[in-house]
Specification:
The complex is a heterodimer. By secondary structure, chain A is mainly alpha-helical. Chain A is 59% helix and 4% strand. Chain A has 14 helices and seven strands. In chain A, the strands form three sheets. Chain A has a three-stranded mixed beta sheet with strand order 3-4-5. In chain A, strands 1-2 form a two-stranded antiparallel ribbon. In chain A, strands 6-7 form a two-stranded antiparallel ribbon. In chain A, β1 (48-50) and β2 (55-57) form a beta hairpin. In chain A, α3 (59-84) packs parallel to α7 (205-223). By secondary structure, chain B is of the alpha/beta class. Chain B has eleven helices and twelve strands. Chain B has a six-stranded parallel beta sheet with strand order 2-1-3-4-5-11, with helices on both faces. A six-stranded mixed beta sheet of chain B has the order 7-6-8-9-10-12, sandwiched between helices. The chains are: A mainly alpha, B alpha/beta. Chains A and B meet through α3, α6, α10 and α12 of A and α1, α2, β7, α7 and α8 of B.
Chain lengths: 405, 329
C-alpha cells in the first residue's frame, strides 16, 4: 500500500474528524496559555504535584476533570441518538432532580430544621446514591414508555421532563440551595481524602467515574448484542422487529441507560459544590451533550455510532470552554462561540457540501492545468437515508477538457 | 387496543399539565381586590444564590393575609424574557401592586408602560432599572455602588493598618453581567484601581453569582499561573467556590485577602473562622420594607424615588455579633 493510501485511510477513519477538532482546540489552548505572562508553550502540558492535597494538577487534568459530567452524559446520549433518531433533551433536568432527591433523602426530615443543610446523614450515603440512580432510571422508563409505546418523538417526549424535572427538583429542594456539610460528600466531585487529608488516587475522582462509565458501556456494547441491536433499531425499526428484535425493550433500555448516566453526572455536579443548586446545575448541558455526539462524528439521524467519538467530542467542548475562560470570555457568551463551532462542523460534515467542494477543487486543478483527481463515488443510501458501509471505489472522472487537448 | 392508547395518551397529557403547573407562579390566584387584602405580584429573578432565596422567603413570610396581603409569586429563572411575561401575567390578573426584582436593568419600557396604563403601581426591588422615573412608583434596595465603595474602603484601611507594601493584585469574580449588583460593585473596584498605582486587576471574569461557576472560573485563573493576593468576589457563593478551588490547588487562602458581598450565615461563620476577610453587607430581607412602602402609598403619601436599605460591613471585629442575625444558610 502506498503512502498516500495510508494517509487516505487515516483521513477517512471515522475518528479522524473528532480527533482533528480536539487537536485544533487544544492547539489554540496551548497558544493562548503561552501568551500569558511568564508562560511557555509547555505551560499547558505542565502537571504539578500538590503536596498539600496529594493531587496532580494542571490544565490538562482540569479539562479532563471538568469534562467528566459531559463525557458521562454523552455516553447515554449517543445510544439514544443512535437508537431513536432523536435526543434526550431532559438530561440536565434529570441531573438536578437526581441530585435533589438524593440530598433530600440524605437529610430526610431534618433539612428545614437545619436551615437547609445536611449536618449528618440520616440514611447512609449509598442509599442516597442508589436513590439518584433509581430516579434517573425512572425518568428513563418514563421516556421509554412515551417513545416506544406511545410513539411520541423523543425530543417532544423528553421536553416534558426538561421543563418539569427542574420544577420537581425545586419542590423537592423547597426552592432553596440545600447544602451538605458532611466532608466526605465532596469526594465524588472533587478528590478523596485519607486521614492525612491526601488523595490516594492522585487524580480528581470524576475522571475515574467517567472512565468507569465509558468502560462499562463499551464492554456492554462489545460483549452483548445490545450495541448491534441499538444500531439496528436506529437504522430501521420495522425491519428490526420483523427480524425478531424487541425494539420496544431496546428503546426502553437506551433511555434507562441515558437517565442513569444523567443521575451519575448529577451526583458529581452536586458533590463538586456540596449542594444542590436547582437553578444552575445542568443548565443547558443537554445541548452540550448533543453537541458532543455530533462532534464525535455521529449522525444525529441515528444508526451507526461511535462511543469513542462522543467521548472525544465531550472533551473537545470542555477544552473549548477552558480556552474561552483563559481568553476572559464570560460564561454567558460561551454559547455564541459554541454555535460558531457547531455551524462549521455541520457545514463540513454536510453530504451536500462534499461534491461541491470536490467540483471546486477539480475546477481549480483544471485552471492550473493539473491532471484530474480520483474522486469517490457517492455512497449508496439505504432505507431511511442511512448510508450503508460499502467498500470505497475509485474511478477516473471524465472532464471534457481533460486529456483530449 | 385503541382505547388503551387513548387512555395512556390522556394520562400522559394530564401528567404533563400537572408537571408544568409545578412551575411556581403559574398557578396564580384570582387576583384583584377582595376586601381589604392587597394582592401583590412579585416577579423574582430566580433562586441563583442563598441571598436570593432568603429574599424570596422574606416576601413569602411577610405577604400573608394576617398582614393584609396576598402574594402572587413568579420566578423568572434568570430569564429576562420570561420575567417580562411574568409581569404581563400580573397585569392580566389585575393585581393591586407589582414588585419587580429585574433580571436585567434595560429593555423594560414597554412592559412598565403597560402596567402604568393598567393603573397598577410598580415597585422596583433590589436591582435598579434604567427607565424614566415616571414608569415606576419607587425603588427599594441596597446601594450596590455604596457596597462596592464600602469594600474598597475596607481594603484601603486594611492595607494601611497591616502595613502591606506589596503591590495589590486582584482577582475579580463578577456577578451576572448587566445586573445592578455587578455594575455597582464592579464600578467601585474599577475606579479604585484606576486611582491607585500599585493596584492591578490581574483577572476579571464572571462567575454568574453561583458557587459552581465561581469554582470553575477560579480554577482556570489559578492555572494561568497569575500572581494575586486579593480576591474580590461579588457575592458569597462565588467566594465559597473560589475558596474551594484555592484549597484544591494547595493555596492557603487564609494568606490572601478575600472580599465578599451579601453576608449569608455560612459566610459570616467563615469570617469568624478566618476564611473570608470582609463581607460588604447587603440585606435580602426586603419584604417588610416593601410592605411598609405599599402601606404608605395606600395612605396617599408621596414616596421618594429611591430608598436604600441600611448596610455596613462584617469583618473579624463584628462577625460574632452579626452571626445570629445573618440570613440564609
Amino acid at each position: 500500500m502506498s503512502e498516500t493510501n495510508i494517509l487516505k485511510r487515516i483521513v477517512r477513519h471515522r475518528m479522524f474528524f473528532p480527533l482533528l477538532c480536539l487537536v485544533l482546540v487544544l492547539l489554540i489552548n496551548v497558544i493562548v496559555t503561552a501568551t500569558q505572562a511568564g508562560a511557555s508553550p509547555a505551560t499547558f502540558f505542565q502537571i504539578t504535584f500538590i503536596k498539600e492535597t496529594g493531587t496532580l494538577a494542571g490544565p490538562l487534568i482540569t479539562i479532563l476533570n471538568r469534562s467528566s459530567e459531559l463525557v458521562i452524559l454523552a455516553v447515554g446520549m449517543t445510544l439514544v441518538v443512535s437508537c431513536t433518531k432523536g435526543a434526550d433533551i431532559s438530561v440536565g433536568s434529570v441531573m438536578v432532580l437526581s441530585g435533589a432527591v438524593s440530598i433530600w433523602l440524605l437529610g430526610f426530615g431534618t433539612l428545614k430544621a437545619n436551615n437547609y443543610q445536611v449536618e449528618s446523614y440520616v440514611v447512609p450515603y449509598v442509599v442516597g446514591l442508589l436513590a439518584a440512580l433509581i430516579v434517573g432510571a425512572a425518568c428513563g422508563l418514563w421516556h421509554g414508555f412515551l417513545v416506544a409505546k406511545l410513539k411520541i418523538q423523543p425530543m417532544i417526549a423528553t421536553l416534558i421532563l426538561l421543563i418539569g424535572g427542574r420544577g420537581i427538583a425545586k419542590i423537592v429542594a423547597d426552592g432553596q440551595i440545600n447544602k451538605v456539610r458532611v466532608p466526605s460528600y465532596r469526594w465524588l466531585g472533587n478528590t478523596i481524602e485519607n486521614s492525612q487529608g491526601l488523595n490516594p488516587l492522585l487524580l480528581p475522582t470524576p475522571i475515574f467515574v467517567a472512565i468507569g462509565v465509558v468502560v462499562v458501556a463499551a464492554l456492554l456494547l462489545r460483549f452483548t448484542a445490545l450495541g448491534m441491536n441499538i444500531q439496528s433499531v436506529g437504522i430501521n425499526d420495522r425491519s428490526s422487529r420483523i427480524l425478531g428484535l424487541n425494539s420496544v425493550r431496546i428503546i426502553f433500555t437506551v433511555f434507562v441507560i441515558c437517565g442513569m448516566c444523567a443521575a451519575i453526572a448529577g451526583m458529581i455536579a452536586t458533590s463538586r459544590i456540596a449542594s444542590v443548586d436547582t437553578q444552575n446545575i445542568g443548565k443547558m448541558i443537554e445541548l452540550d451533550a448533543i453537541l458532543a455526539v455530533a462532534l464525535g462524528g455521529n449522525s444525529l439521524a441515528g444508526g451507526k455510532f461511535s462511543l469513542g467519538g462522543s467521548v472525544i467530542g465531550a472533551i473537545t467542548i470542555q477544552t473549548l470552554t477552558t480556552v474561552l475562560y483563559s481568553l476572559s470570555v464570560s460564561p454567558d457568551q460561551l454559547p455564541f462561540f459554541k454555535a460558531v463551532v457547531v455551524i462549521i462542523i455541520v457545514i463540513v460534515q454536510s453530504p451536500q457540501l462534499r461534491p461541491l467542494a470536490e467540483k471546486a477543487l477539480g475546477g481549480l486543478r483544471r485552471l492550473f492545468g493539473l491532471p484530474p483527481r480520483r474522486v469517490k463515488k457517492p455512497p449508496i443510501a439505504g432505507d431511511d437515508g442511512q448510508v450503508l458501509d460499502v467498500e470505497p471505489e475509485y474511478e477516473e472522472t471524465n472532464f471534457s477538457s481533460g486529456g483530449e487537448r | 387496543m385503541n382505547i388503551k392508547k387513548i387512555i395512556l395518551g390522556v394520562a400522559s397529557v394530564a401528567l404533563f399539565l400537572g408537571l408544568s403547573a409545578c412551575n411556581p407562579g403559574e398557578g396564580g390566584g384570582d387576583g384583584g381586590t377582595t376586601g381589604d387584602v392587597i394582592t401583590v405580584g412579585f416577579a423574582q429573578v430566580g433562586a441563583e444564590s442563598g441571598w436570593r432565596t432568603a429574599n424570596t422567603q422574606s416576601f413569602k413570610d411577610y405577604f400573608v393575609e394576617e398582614n393584609g396581603f396576598k402574594l402572587v409569586f413568579a420566578d423568572a429563572n434568570q430569564d429576562a424574557d420570561k420575567q417580562k411575561q411574568d409581569v404581563r401575567d400580573f397585569i392580566a390578573q389585575g393585581v393591586d401592586y407589582i414588585v419587580l426584582a429585574p433580571v436585567t436593568d434595560s429593555g423594560w419600557e414597554p412592559v412598565l408602560q403597560e402596567a402604568k396604563d393598567a393603573g397598577i403601581p410598580l415597585i422596583v426591588a433590589d436591582r435598579q432599572l434604567m427607565v424614566a422615573d415616571d414608569l415606576y412608583l419607587t425603588y427599594l434596595g441596597g446601594n450596590m455602588r455604596g457596597e462596592g465603595d464600602t469594600a474598597v474602603q475596607w481594603l484601603v484601611d486594611h492595607i494601611a493598618a497591616e502595613g502591606i507594601t506589596d503591590p495589590i493584585n486582584i482577582v475579580h469574580l463578577q456577578g451576572t453581567i448587566g445586573s445592578t449588583a455587578q455594575k455597582g460593585r464592579t464600578e467601585a473596584l474599577d475606579e479604585a484601581v484606576k486611582d491607585k498605582a500599585d493596584w492591578t486587576i490581574v483577572a476579571q471574569q464572571t462567575g454568574e453569582f453561583t458557587q459552581a461557576k465561581g469554582q470553575e472560573v477560579m480554577e482556570s485563573i489559578i492555572q494561568q499561573g497569575l500572581a494575586f493576593n486579593v480576591i474580590y468576589a461579588e457575592n458569597d457563593d462565588m467566594a465559597y467556590g473560589a475558596i474551594d478551588a484555592l484549597k484544591a490547588a494547595g493555596i492557603n487562602h487564609q494568606e490572601l485577602i478575600i472580599i465578599s458581598f451579601d453576608g449569608n450565615k455560612s459566610a459570616v461563620q467563615m469570617v469568624i473562622d478566618g476564611d473570608i476577610d470582609v463581607i460588604a453587607e447587603c440585606t435580602p430581607l426586603l419584604g417588610p420594607q416593601i410592605a411598609d412602602l405599599i402601606r404608605r402609598a395606600e395612605a396617599g403619601e408621596t414616596l421618594d424615588k429611591v430608598t436604600y436599605s441600611i448596610e455596613g460591613f462584617i469583618d473579624s471585629t463584628n462577625a460574632a455579633e452579626k452571626l445570629p442575625i445573618a440570613f440564609g444558610s
